[in-house]
Write a structure and sequence with these properties.
single chain; alpha/beta; nine-stranded mixed β-sheet; 2 domains; FAD/NAD(P)-binding domain; six-stranded antiparallel β-barrel
Length: 436
Amino acid sequence: MTVSREAQRSGAERGNGDALRSEDSASRLKAFEVAVVGAGAAGLMAAMRAAERGKRVLLLEKNRKPGVKILMSGGTRCNITHATNNRGIVEAYGPPGKFLHSALAAFSVQDTLDFFEAEGVATKVEETGKVFPVSDKALDVLNALLRRLQRSGATLALDEPLQRLSPHGDIFELATPKRTLTAEKVILTTGGKSYPGSGTTGDGYAFAAQWGHTIVPPRPALVPVRITAPWVADLRGITLPDVRVRILEGESVLDQRRGSLLFAHFGLTGPVILDISRTISGHSRPNSLQLEIDLLPPLKEADVDEFLRRQAQESGKKQLTVVLTSLLPRRLCDHVLSLCGLPIERKAAALSREERACIIAVVKRLRLPVAGTLGFEKAEVTAGGIALNEVDSRNMQSKLVPNLFLAGEVLDLDGPIGGYNFQAAWSTGWLAGNSV
């Protein structure tokens, strides 16, 4: 692999530039067989696979270093994939998942694990099924990709954004601030609009749209949710490992999920909130919605009622909030009482039926008004993008533009939290690189 001089200078500082060579003037002038635009997860895979097949490949990246979003992902740990089979990945995406059949056949979950293991990145499976590097370092994942890319012989050009992409007969002309070059085939792997600070600002949509591709309106997904109830901020830092969350419009249920929740100063986050957030960001009036949270999904309402009755008899002299701490964190228990108009010092004895009913309602059916999400700035992925029915899932080629291929998050394809989106990026990128 060769890289521009800017890449060589910056790469050495980050531990991935030692083996990279400066791109010579001759290579800057020649035409390429394949140009890959965007050196994220899908782009790195596409470029290395195409180069390994003997193609002359240029990988263009507008940032000063590749794989910025990889380094940010999973709290800088990088959730590589999910511990399931290919069918599990497809099913996790719902109806759009069928688009991934060919990509997963070309590069499966097991292929992903084998790929990183072969590059010296040992992996581990956590209780949630998420697969991480044993080191918990996203940098190890990126370095593995760059080592493979280097061996492939692809040319990596950093700090060089694509400004214009236009077909000229059987070739494409690509213009950057530094040069104009040609390529026989182009793979767009520019990502979506999530984490724009990492460079994913939706650039690829305009290139695809200029040739008639439909762009499903992008919106944030896997993004924290803002809540207007001011008391929620008092609970910042509290994690509930198992809750059930429903999104309500009036009394209609739009979506529901179960998982871990984290209170934050702006509202709510955590896996269950991130998973359900796309329904909120996709709604025309998100502030008309409510979240209904079951704080204790393993218990039925009758179980909670029996617990309160028993504690009133057996621990009546204790403060009710102390009694409730056997079920929920103390600070949350204080707010449960407050929402029912009960003083914090209230004893457990002699709870009325109405008081028990209110506590049960708060614990099992806590309703919180939604203000929206934190937007693309804090979204892990993008929902929306290039319409899937305009892309041939067998090879990732555009159905509208011959020799234009599309892979990764630029597509209208977003999955749940847990490594599913990275798996789609690895697989679609590999298939695109295998098809050019």
